[in-house]
C-alpha cells in the first residue's frame, strides 16, 4: 500500500477505540486476596529479622561454607562402577572447570566425561556456562529436550528432590556425545539460571544466606550421529548418582546451615 494514501485514510476515518472491559467484582476480590496472602507471607518472613535485629539487606548474603563447593575444581567426584582415568582443572572461556574422564576397565569401550564448574565465590551467579561449553567444542546441537529426573532412591540421600536437566546430542567433526547438563543446588537443579535465581531468592528469605550452585555437564561418547534415546536411561541413572553425591558432600552445609 502507498504510504501517502495510507496516511490519508488514517486522517479521514478515525474509529472510536473500543471501551476497555471493566474488571468483574469477583476478579477484584481474587486479586485482593492474593495480594493479602503475599503480604502475610512477607510479614511472616520478616518477623524473625525484627526479633533478632539482623536484616538480610544489612550486608550482602553469602553462601554457607562455600569451601567444599570450591574444592570440587581440584577433586571432582567419584562415580560408582566407573574407573577414573584422568582429573584436572581446565579453563574454558576463562572459567575454571573440573574435567574428569572415566571408563569401565581396560577391556571396555564404555567411557564418560564429567565436567563440574562449582560456584567460584559468594557473588558469582550462573550465566553462560552452557554457551561456553558448546562454543569450546564447536558443537552442532540436535534433539534437545528437558528431562525431569527423580531423586535417587537411597536411604542416606540428603535433601533429595527431583531436578531438571537438558539432554541433547552434541557433535563436531571429531566426536559425537550424548550430553546431560544442569545446575545442581541443594535438593534440586535445573539447566535454567532463572530457576536457580528463584530458588536462591526463596532460600535467602528463609535462611538469610545464598544458595550455592554447581554446573554439571555429563558427556557419553557415541558412534556416528545417531539416536541418543538408547543412552537416556543410563545417563539419567548416573545423573541421579551425581546429584545425590553433591547433596551429601559439597552442598550439605547449605542444606543444613549452621546457626550460631
Summarize the structure.
By secondary structure, this protein is α+β, with helices and mostly antiparallel strands. It is built from seven helices and eight strands; from the N terminus they run αααβββαββββαβαα.
Question: Assembly state here?
Answer: single chain
Instruction: Output the number of helix runs.
Output: 7
> What form results from the Cα inertia axes?
globular
Measure the end-to-end span: 73 Å
Give the DSSP E fraction (strand runs of 2 or more residues).
Answer: 25-35%
Number of domains: 2
Annotation, overall tally of beta strands: 8
Largest sheet: 8 strands, antiparallel
Q: Structural class from helices and strands?
A: alpha+beta
Could you characterize what this model shows?
By secondary structure, this protein is of the alpha+beta class. It has 2 domains: 26-55; 67-255, no CATH class. It is 37% helix and 26% strand. It has helices at 3-12, 25-52, 67-75, 129-137, 193-207, 229-248, 252-255, and strands at 83-92, 95-103, 111-118, 140-149, 163-171, 176-185, 188-190, 214-221. Strands 1, 2, 3, 4, 5, 6, 7 and 8 form an 8-stranded antiparallel beta sheet that branches. A hairpin with a 2-residue loop joins strand 6 and strand 7 (188-190). The chain is globular, with a radius of gyration of 25 Å. Residues 1-23 and 256-260 have low confidence and may be disordered.
Amino acid at each position: 500500500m502507498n504510504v501517502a494514501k495510507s496516511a490519508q485514510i488514517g486522517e479521514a476515518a478515525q474509529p472510536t477505540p473500543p471501551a476497555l472491559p471493566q474488571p468483574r467484582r469477583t476478579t477484584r476480590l481474587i486479586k485482593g486476596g492474593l495480594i493479602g496472602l503475599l503480604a502475610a507471607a512477607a510479614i511472616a518472613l520478616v518477623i524473625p529479622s525484627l526479633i533478632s535485629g539482623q536484616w538480610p539487606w544489612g550486608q550482602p548474603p553469602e553462601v554457607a561454607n562455600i569451601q567444599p563447593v570450591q574444592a570440587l575444581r581440584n577433586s571432582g567426584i567419584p562415580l560408582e562402577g566407573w574407573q577414573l582415568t584422568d582429573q584436572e582443572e581446565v579453563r574454558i572461556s576463562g572459567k575454571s572447570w573440573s574435567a574428569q574422564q572415566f571408563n569401565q576397565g581396560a577391556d571396555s569401550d564404555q567411557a564418560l566425561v564429567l565436567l563440574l564448574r562449582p560456584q567460584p565465590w559468594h557473588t558469582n551467579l550462573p550465566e553462560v556456562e552452557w554457551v561456553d561449553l558448546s562454543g569450546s567444542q564447536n558443537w552442532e546441537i540436535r534433539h534437545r529436550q528437558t528431562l525431569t529426573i527423580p531423586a535417587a532412591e537411597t536411604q542416606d540421600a540428603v535433601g533429595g528432590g527431583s531436578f531438571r536437566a537438558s539432554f541433547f546430542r552434541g557433535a563436531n567433526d571429531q566426536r559425537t556425545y550424548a550430553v546431560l547438563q544442569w545446575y545442581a543446588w541443594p535438593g534440586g537443579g535445573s539447566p535454567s539460571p532463572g530457576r536457580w535465581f528463584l530458588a536462591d531468592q526463596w532460600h535467602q528469605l528463609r535462611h538469610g544466606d545464598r544458595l550455592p550452585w554447581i554446573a554439571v555437564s555429563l558427556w557419553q561418547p557415541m558412534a556416528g550421529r545417531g539416536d541418543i534415546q538408547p543412552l537416556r536411561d543410563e545417563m539419567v541413572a548416573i545423573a541421579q548418582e551425581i546429584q545425590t553425591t553433591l547433596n551429601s558432600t559439597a552442598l550439605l552445609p547449605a542444606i543444613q546451615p549452621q546457626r550460631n
